[in-house]
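Input.
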Amino acid sequence: MVIIYQFLISKLNKLYFFLILFISLCSVLLFDSLVFNFILKYDTPIFTDSLIGHIIGKSFSAFIFSFILYIYLKFIDKEEDNGGFIAAQNREVFSILNYREKYFNLKEEKQHVEKKYISQIESTLNQISDGFVSLDTNWCYTYINEKAAEFLGKSPESLIGKHIWKEFPEGIGSSIDIAYRKAQKTIHFENYFEPLDKWFKSRIYPSPEGLTIYYTDITEKKKAETHNQMLLSLIETSDDFLGLATLEGKPTYLNTNGRQLVGLKSNEELADSITDFFPQNYKEVILNEHMPNIYKKDKWNGEVEFKNFKTGALIPIEMSGFLIKDNLTKKSIALGIVAKDITQCKKSEEKLISSEQLFRGLSSNVPVAIFQADKDGACNYVNEEWLKYSGQSFNEVMGFGWSNAIHPEDKERVVSQWQESIVTGTNLFQISDCFKKTEK
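Output.
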C-alpha cells in the first residue's frame, strides 16, 4: 500500500487525493483476496464464486475506508489553515498515520517555546528603566513590570487582574484618565499625576485587546527644568550684563539688560566674537592678555569699556570673565561674562575727587590745623597748618603716624582713647594740649 500510494501521489494531480486513497487501499485488499483464494480455494467448485465475492467485497470495503479516511483528513484532523491538508498529501503514509501524535508533540513543544519566550520577554521588561503596563478592554491590569510597580508604589502581583481606577480612584477624571479613554492611536504626552506627586512621560499604544503603556518618571527632569526656568528668569531680570560664549569666543547668549547696555534688540543677532563688544584699540588686549588669563587662571576681573553698537558710545564697566565647567568631568564647556555698568560710579568718583580737591584747596591755607581720618581711625589728610603745628611731613602723618606728634607721656592714653572712640562711635576728646612741637 505504501509503495502504491507513494507512486500514485507523485504521478497524479493532488486534487485526485480520494482516488489515490481508493486505488491504494483497493489494490492491497484485492491482492489479499487473490492470494487467499488461490491458496485455499483453488481447484475447488467454489473458487470462482469465492474470488468474485471477495473482489466485490474488498472493492466496496476499499471505497468505504477511503471515503472515511478522506473525510477525516480533510475535515476533522485538518490544521487551522487549509494548507495543512494539502501539505499532508505530500507526506509519506507513515507520516500521515502518525500525524496526530506528531501534531500534539509539536503543540506541546510550541507551548514550551512560548513559555520560554514569554519568560525572556518578562525578564527583559523587568530590566528596562521604563514602566510597562498592559490593560485589557475592561481596564484591568494584564501585565505590569517591576519598574512600573515601583513607580506606583505597589507589587506587580497585587495589581494583576485589578481595575486600574479601583486601585487608583483619585486618578479618575485626571489628564491621564482622559488620555487613556480617548486613545485611538499612538499618543505621546507628559503629565503630572497628583496622587503620586510625580511627572510621567507616557506613550500609549491602543489595540483591540486593550492598551499598552510605556512611561518614564521624569519628576527630577521637571524639577531641573523648573529650577532652570527660575534661574533663567533671575538672569533675565538681573541689572547686570550676563552673557555666554563658546570657548573660541563666539557669543551664544546675552540677557535683556546686557542687550540694552550694548544697544542690541531682542531679535538681533549677536556679534561674531566677544572682541566686537570692545573698542577697536582694545581688541588686541582682549585677545592677547585677558583671554589667555581666563584660560590659564579660570577667570579675569577688571575695569574696561564696552561700545554701544547703536551709538558707538563707550560705556565704562567692571567685568568678570570666567570658565564654565562640567560638574562631572570638570572640563571647560563655555565662557561666562558678567559685567556691571559703572558709569554712575565713575561720575560719583569724579565728583568726589573734585570735591576732595576743592576741600583740600580751601583747607590748605586756612590758619587752623585740620586733621582727617577714615572710618578705621587712620589719617588720610592734614593741611599745611597741621604740619606746621606738629612738625611732621605729610607722609609721616599718614595712617597712624600722627600719633608720633603726641607727647610721650600722653601717647599711650591718647591712642587708647582714640581707638575706643572709633569702636564705640563716641565724640572725640580734646588732644590739642597733648601734641608736642617736633623740631626739625
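The chain has a mean pLDDT of 80.
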